[in-house]
Write a structure and sequence with these properties.
By secondary structure, the protein is an alpha/beta fold. It contains 13 helices and 20 strands.
Length: 412
């Protein structure tokens, strides 16, 4: 019997079992693939008590982040999202040279650079050494270590507390959720504001986003689950914003229990939405595995039909979600010969588990495939705007498989 990583209650409800899968961001080099790529169980369970959905098997964080290939700044839309957040929070909190912004899992400085440009002191905490070094090279003060209560104590001892504490897409990535949230409480100034973003599990379920399940995502979060763990550590949610990133996310804004920030109606609205969507009685999880299996079957049917008709298919976006998708669907290079990605950190490597080579976009376009499957569907508009005119030139089309297989009409 497993225990919930948030409340400690017994876990006995399996939501979906995706079988054995590799660590999604550990992209092997050509001489490291094949049977040398380790595979681990990938299944999600939900806590019936506090509502936290979570992976059953905990991978070692060192294995997950030691050689990290995800650099936030490669996505233009994500950097713009970060800039807008910086503008909004600077105005809302009246941040200035005497303020302090701290970001946990600050990656390559994609967000903090915008605050720093306004003369606001910043500090990043990033566990992946190679990524932290990229931020430091930009002049962003960055500590390279895993965050938790001990790291928070060290930061406060150095004289730093956060007027704005940011955690974008990191809350789901920590195995010890209580230690991490306790660290947030320690670093946050008495009247400070905590802003965390995470993909909303309600969207994952309703839009069949099973490919966003991978070992690096230890948790799949709802407002209910977040409020439970925050309250345990003296934090209070007082506002929420819906954001479009990663298939539909929540930006939860919190503070210390005793802080003066007043709760907005948006909090009640999301609570009501989760209740209506079946999260509170856990009915939202019923049938999810079957819907994912249907998606896999439709993808197999599409690829089989393409092969029979002599149509070629390539893929775009060597994102973690693409690794889960390709492994769950058992798609190898005989069906999709290459995956293109704009990140030079990924090019020349392989999709783990299925050994599809990762190439630069120009190599993919040079093949003139009939169809290009967008694996990184969260930035599909960015990809299409950049490359659809070229595909149109030879009659090629982009396709997506989530939530269902669809050939996309020309828009750009």
């Amino acid at each position: 019997m497993e225990k919930c990583r948030s409340c400690g209650d017994d876990l006995d409800r399996t939501v979906i079992d995706l079988g054995l899968s590799p660590l999604a961001n550990n992209l092997p080099r050509p001489d490291e693939g094949g049977e040398r790529t380790p595979l681990y169980p990938l299944a999600v369970m939900v806590c019936l008590k506090c509502g936290l959905a979570q992976v059953e098997y905990d991978a070692d964080p060192v294995d997950l982040f030691e050689d990290y290939t995800y650099f936030s700044s490669w996505s233009e839309s994500w950097v713009e999202h970060a800039r807008e957040l910086a503008v909004s929070m600077t105005s809302r909190l009246e941040l200035g040279p005497r303020s302090q912004v701290v970001e946990i899992a600050s990656n390559d400085g994609y967000l903090l650079q915008h605050f720093q440009a306004k003369g606001i002191p910043v500090l990043g905490v990033e566990p992946a050494t190679n990524v932290a070094e990229a931020a430091q090279a930009k002049g962003i003060p960055t500590i390279s270590k895993f965050f938790g209560a001990d790291a928070a104590d060290e930061i406060v001892a150095s004289g730093v507390t956060a007027d704005l504490l940011v955690g974008n897409n990191v809350l789901a990535h920590v195995p010890d959720l209580n230690d991490f949230v306790e660290g947030l409480s320690i670093v946050l100034a008495p009247q400070g504001v905590l802003s965390v973003e995470f993909p909303h599990v309600l969207n994952l379920l309703e839009r069949v986003q099973f490919d966003t399940i991978y070992h690096e995502h230890f948790s799949y979060l709802s407002l209910e689950a977040v409020e439970h763990v925050f309250e345990r550590h003296g934090l209070r949610v007082f506002d929420i914003e819906d954001v479009s990133t990663h298939g539909g996310s929540l930006r939860v804004i919190a503070c210390h229990d005793e802080a003066r920030h007043e709760r907005t109606p948006a909090v009640r609205a999301v609570r009501d939405r989760e209740k209506k969507g079946g999260l509170l009685d856990r009915s939202a999880y019923l049938g999810f595995a079957e819907r994912a299996e249907h998606c896999r079957a439709m993808t197999d049917e599409f690829l089989t039909r393409c092969a029979e008709e002599g149509k070629t298919v390539a893929a775009y976006g060597a994102a973690a979600k693409g690794v889960t998708f390709l492994n769950y669907c058992s798609i190898g290079p005989s069906r999709i010969p290459v995956v293109a990605d704009i990140s030079t950190a990924k090019q020349g490597r392989l999709i783990p588990g299925v050994d599809i080579p990762i190439v630069d976009p120009e190599s993919l376009l040079g093949m003139k495939p009939d169809y290009v499957l967008i694996l990184a569907w969260n930035i599909a508009d960015e990809i299409r705007a950049k490359h659809e005119p070229q595909l149109r030139g030879w009659g090629g089309h982009f396709v997506v498989a989530i939530p269902e297989m669809q050939i996309l009409e020309y828009e750009f």
